[in-house]
Structure formats: C-alpha cells, structure tokens
Automatic annotation (TrEMBL):
This is Peptidyl-prolyl cis-trans isomerase. The keyword Isomerase applies. InterPro entries: Cyclophilin-like_dom_sf, Cyclophilin-type_PPIase_dom. PROSITE patterns: CSA_PPIASE_2. Its EC number is 5.2.1.8. It catalyses: [protein]-peptidylproline (omega=180) = [protein]-peptidylproline (omega=0). It comes from Dinothrombium tinctorium. It comes from the Eukaryota. It is an enzyme of class 5 (isomerase).
Amino acid sequence: MKVENDSCKDGHIKRKFMNIYIDNVQAKYVDGTHKVTFEVAHGKKPLGKIVIALFGNIVPKTVANFVAFAREEGYNGLSYKGGDLSDAKDGRGEISIYGQNFDDENFVLKHTEPGILSMANRGKNTNGSQFFITTVETDWLDDKHVVFGKVIDGMDIVRQIESVHTNGEDKPTEDVVITKTSVEEIKMKVPIK
C-alpha cells in the first residue's frame, strides 16, 4: 500500500485529495461535510433510507443549494423523476437559492461509479433544484453535470427505485416519493473512485 497527497488547481481554489494505492488501484478519499438522509416510499410502502455524503469543500455553492432545500423540507413529497420545485412544475427545475439557475461550480469530481450524486441540468450553467444518483459509471456526464455527493448507505434502495415499473415516459406507475429528509454536518473521509 502506498499513500500520497495530491492536489488539483480549479480556478482559484487548490483542492487536496488523499490518494491511496492498493495493488496499483487508486482510491481517492474526499471530505464529506454534510450527510443528507432521504426516507423513501413506493406507493404507500416504505422502501427505506438513502444516506448521502456531500462534498461541501469541493463544491460549496452546489452543496449549500441542496442543503437549503433539504433543510427546508423542499424535497419532501417529491416523486422520483421529479425534483422540480419551481411553480411551473414543467420538469425544468428552474429554482435555486441563488435565483432561477446557477452556474456550474466545477467538474473536479467525476461520475466514476454507482451512487454518485450530481446536478441535473438543461445545459451549461443551468443548475436549479433537480439532482440524480447514478447506478453505473457514467463518464459521458463528466464535465457536463456537477458531482457533489455520494450515497454512503442505501444503495439497495436506489436499486429498488431503478427497477420500479414505469409508463412510456419513464415515470413510475406508482409514485416513488421522498417522505422525510434530514441533514447533519459531518467530518468524514468518503472513498470515491
């Protein structure tokens, strides 16, 4: 095992990563700053909890936006393939704590594995309230969607959501809903590929 400290310059901010090599495979640890827990139900049946670590040291503006909605219960009652908190409810998700949309903060972290939390958008600099969780490596999303967290518990619940029956528009025939949200500040190392 070999341990190195590494850094990456992004704009004016120098980011630190701890790289650990085990059998020549690199594992990166990112500081988790917040933990968000979503309790989820499918129809009237509780599915369980999805626990997500957020990376506020790398993307503080993006994390602040997400945490504000989570703390104010903005995500409670939202259905999967939802996340649109705007009055229009047209699926564009054009609302943030910064106004309508906000710019892409950076693309330091990548979509390297299942469980990555990332901002949904309609193109460059159109972040709002919508987000998604990956279920496979999705490198084609790199440098287009801002990664700001990772599922640390409840990936089995994400997989259950992934497999629910949907209609022709990929909307579940029975709603998958966030029933309760909680947020806490943390200090933990989160492994990320």
